[in-house]
Amino acid sequence: MSHLHPSPRAPRLRVALLAALVAVGLVACGKSPPPAAEAPAPAPAPVAEVARPAKQYRIEEFVQTVGVAGSSFSADESRILFSSNKSGIWNAYHMPAGGGDWTAVTNSSTDNNYAVAYFPTDDRILITRDQGGNELNHLYVIEADGSEKDLTPGENLKADFAGFTPDGSAFYVTHNGRDPRYFDVYRYDAKTYEATRIFENKDGYEPGPVSDDGKWIALGKSNTTNDSDLFVAELATGKVTKVSEHTGQAQFGAQAFSPDSQYLYYTANDAGEFAELRRVSLSTWAHEPVQKADWDIVFSYFSHAGKYRVVGINEDGSTKVRMYDAASNAEVPLPALPAGEVRGVNIARSEKRMAFYLNGDRQPSDLYVLEFGGEPKQLTKSLNPVIDPADLVDSSVVRFKSFDGMEIPNILWKPHQATAQAKAPALVWVHGGPGGQTTRAHSFAIQYLANNGYVVLGINNRGSSGYGKTFFAADDGRHGREPLWDCIEAKEYLASLDYVDPNRIGIIGGSYGGYMVLAALAFKPGEFDVGVNIFGVSNWLRTLESIPPYWESFRQALYQEIGNPETQRDFLIETSPLFHADKINRPLMVLQGANDPRVIKPESDDIVAAVQKNNVPVEYVVFDDEGHGFTKKDNQIEAWGKVLAFLDTHLKNKPDAAAAAGAGR
């Protein structure tokens, strides 16, 4: 699920994609003797087609699919560290790199624990966790004896791991302990855990990578959500050099220093619609092109000793991963794999093997290990074995022209049971952001809805990432208007499909997508039959005034994107659904995490109370142990089970739909 995000909206790699198709209705048979020459060959026996879905699954069965994420090789590369929600809560595990039983590193039954990395020279492990989804992550070390130590103690502190030095003798951490608004950079001794601040961030930079020789750090600076600058600081002297001189609106993003610490590789879209990869010399400050594509290059990084360079390209709702020999720049072909897309490539320090994920519509992320020169080995089987992948659906990319002729890209999930003779209810699914992107990835929630007969159209309305900087900027200052009107056009597109019931179309979304749900119901009443708002903004004034202190470096960019509560109060009231809630006349469901620091609980409390006065059905679900997103399996089961029940009652089986169907017979 996408989230309201404080950082510049440059696209980032988020998900892994894999499609696993299962053949159905086929039988193997042995060879028969050939018929006599004068006899005609018998017609082949008809093969019975299996109606899909052959089974509709309960939400419990979808949620029992195992989530796995992240990877880190042990010092001897015999084991691999990862995170999983196998127990119902996210915990850290390790397993043999060749496959085998899992061993739990953490055993939390309350707060999620996520694996970060093995230490490069021994069996110690770094993990991170927050408290009930409040996003105040600390960094912890699990010692060889299993004891745990908080490396970043402090109240209201938020910390992130920033990588080991090449020899493993130290590692970098960013945290806001000195000033809650800004993240300083610290170097920790890997033996004593003594921390030394190497960069004091007094000017609201966004710290990036540190060079392998420890002399340089890359720094970002947000001007607007569509414009940013890139700097390089010399740590010994504190001298900061700007390396992103440009005119107009453009985004610059640090990617990686070269292994010899002579260059900084970065992405920039100042020369066209899409971000390309370049590098800048740290001795001459001269810039060189490295790679260009017809879409955004969203990341690039090197293996430990620099033998390989990995690149990701955001290509029409999917991320294409490419690997290159860094010396020759020749592409290194990835092995033949089942249908799907590679994600999370992690090349071991020896550069002899790599871990990666494969993920797709019908199959959630699975972890693989590849010995270079050999065949990939699948280490996990994440899909609940009771689910037949053939009962799930493949997504497709579709486009429609919006009200002003702008082309809007979307991801469409069509249920097997939806036909022109059995028209299905449909949902417009709006991502978060505002500048997020709906991509072709496995989603248990969307597959659950499709399995139960709902067409889902994941709209990438104007302002979404991945389709060029002009499209990306097209929603600035227009929230509640043009991006919403795209959603109305998405409804019209759905209504034009012969397998969709035009009288049963709803809207659903989380975070900024939840705002769009409320905006649709309040500003375009009657257009959608129902709305499902998952921790969405109802009052921009309050949301912008209550952002976490560590969003300070992005505050002015957010104000320009959404509106300034100090100078544009009337505009923000005009675009906030809470102040227009009396117009909402369709059933509304609201889901909220009590510890959400981005869209705080009063946002949902107030819109629920306001709409309840309208004498329309309102259902409110609150999780006391969640934040901005529902991560615990028990909560996911409750949330999505209630969403389906709400949709079945107020959309699929709404009285006027049944009456209309009867009148048409």
Low-confidence stretches: 1-44, 658-665
Whole-number average pLDDT? 91
Q: Compute the number of strand runs.
A: 35
Strand content: 25-35%
C-alpha termini separation: 40 Å
Number of helices: 11
Strand order of the largest sheet: 28-29-31-30-32-33-34-35
Largest sheet: 8 strands, mixed
Class derived from helix and strand content: alpha+beta
Question: What gyration radius follows from the Cα positions, in whole Å?
Answer: 26 Å
Q: Which of globular, elongated, flat, extended, rod-shaped describes the shape? A: globular
Q: Helicity level, as a percent range?
A: 10-25%
Task: Please describe what this structure looks like.
By secondary structure, the chain is α+β, with helices and mostly antiparallel strands. Helices cover 16% and strands 33% of the residues. An eight-stranded mixed sheet has the order 28-29-31-30-32-33-34-35, with helices on both faces. Strands 1-2-3-4 form a four-stranded antiparallel sheet, with no helix packed on it. The chain has a four-stranded antiparallel sheet with strand order 5-6-7-8, with no helix packed on it. Strand 24 and strand 25 form a beta hairpin. The longest helix is centred in the C-terminal third of the chain and has 20 residues, at 633-652. The two termini are 40 Å apart. The model is unreliable at 1-44 and 658-665 (pLDDT under 50).
